[in-house]
Amino acid sequence: MFKKILIANRGEIALRVVRAAREMGIATVAVHSTADADAMHVRMADESVCIGPPASPQSYLSVPAIIAACEVTGAEAIHPGYGFLSENAGFVQVVEDHGLTFIGPTAEHIRIMGDKITAKDTMKALGVPCVPGSDGGVATLDDAKRIGAEIGYPVIIKATAGGGGRGMKVAQTAADMEKAFLTARAEGKSNFGNDEVYIEKYLTTPRHIEIQVFGDGKGRAVHLGERDCSLQRRHQKVFEEAPGPSITAAERARIGKICADAVANINYIGAGTIEFLYENGEFYFIEMNTRLQVEHPVTESIFGVDLVREQIRVAAGLPMELNQDSLSINGHSIEVRINAEKLPNFSPCPGRITQYHAPGGLGVRMDSALYDGYSIPPYYDSLIGKLIVHGRDRPEALARLHRALGELIVDGVDTTVPLFHALLAEPDVLSGAYNIHWLEHWLETNLGG
User: Are residues 358 and 263 part of one domain?
Assistant: First the structure.
């Protein structure tokens, strides 16, 4: 087992890894920018190293600075958290070249799944159901129009290297294709340096369902059920739950086995999430995230496992403790993402926390790096906490979420907490009758955007 690991991240996820490592008796090294000198993950880790100024490219995305921090502290492994360098194959290669261990998948698997066309081709070959679409990239507008006619409208044009909703445009009819195609290419080029796009059938009322998988890198893998992440704003998740309210036990077993077998066949190591659109009882692969997800706590809650602990164990070469036969769902869990944002426009709202009180009680977990007096810097993502609740069933989880939101105090900045109070009064949310377009329509009607 490792004696010391470095956490190449910040905020609540860095703190999450510190806690798991401490329970395992492993020393931790926090890296931080000058803007994060007083951050909670820096205070909680055993050691800390400043790796640069506030801007991410000069700090959290600086590979030389992170490697140097490992060398000066004697850290043997790096946990990337999510975001930043967590899915950067080049970074993983550098880590390995320096004799260090990356706590996550191999560079090859990150590279394969990081390119959406290659990922789709790989998954299709492994028997994972995919959305009907183009075979690879689409180079010209004429090809795009031909494929659109073959698939049938509406279609969605996606940048191959896209993510976070960027480089994605919908063509409802053939008349929309030119603008959608050219805009998606332009966004791909400006955001990711790659203007290649591909085309898929656009499903009208799908849910976003993702399957948590975990592999040992030696041909054995398990699935830990699904999460429903359909409540999204601009392709960004805001509310996640497990199990999915629309998924049957038979569907779960079927798609779960398909996913576990797929990652086992490629000797995948560590945590991964295979994401689908789900409509009319069918699953359609959209992408695989080769890292720990923001919403991993809801899976941990219903299965009673620590995914970060398991990540560290398999990276150290120990046998995977997860066994499919012993994994069973217990109750229901919901997570809401608390962002420092001002409604109704969701504009970032950094600032000083004048009072912070985390909710507690049975079945309540608050993953956050906030504390009284902490100043949220303006340089990073606006996520400041995740409120996770667990109940014996969905109604109890919803009631617990309502109670916990009422206890949560975050003064000094605006947050998205009022959004969740409002959503918990909506019959569609209470019944689970929503899809990936529901929240956008609700926001337009209720908040004007």
Answer: yes
pTM summary value: 0.90
pLDDT in tens, 116-140: 889 989 999 999 999 888 988 999 9
pLDDT greater than 70 at residue 109: yes
The verdict on 57 and 188 lying in the same domain is: no
How many of the other CB atoms lie within 10 Å of CB of 3?
Answer: 11
**Residue 30 and residue 159 in one domain:** no
pLDDT at 166 over 80: no
Residues 69 and 158 in one domain: no
- How buried is 9 (Cβ within 10 angstroms: 0-12 exposed, 13-18 middle, 19+ buried)? buried
Q: CB–CB of 369/383 below 8 Å?
A: no
CATH of the domain at 390: 3.30.470.20
For the chain, the domain total comes to: 3
Residues 266 and 348 in one domain: yes
> Cα 165–445–414 angle (5° rounding)?
70
pLDDT tens digits along 338-367: 999 999 999 999 999 999 999 999 999 999
Distance CA 316, CA 35 (A): 32
Residues 74, 216 within the same domain: no
Q: What is the dihedral of CA 319, 320, 326, 329, to 10 degrees?
A: 160
Helix (H) or strand (E) holding 124: helix 116-125
Which of 82, 128, 117 lies closest to 274 in space, CA to CA?
Answer: 128
Residues carrying an active site annotation: 291
Phi, psi of 100 (to 5 degrees): -105, 165
Return left, alpha or beta for 315; rule: phi > 0 is left, psi -120 to 50 is alpha, else beta: alpha
> Do 274 and 296 fall into the same domain?
yes
* 418 plus 440 within the same structural domain: yes
| pLDDT digits 0-9 by tens, 269-306 | 999 999 999 998 999 998 999 999 999 999 999 999 99
DSSP 127: T
Answer yes or no: is 40 within a domain: yes
Domain that holds residue 173: 132-201
> Tens of pLDDT along 431-442?
999 999 999 999
Q: Tokens 């395992």 belong to which residue?
A: 24
Distances (CA, A) of 30 to 13, 55, 75: 11, 17, 11
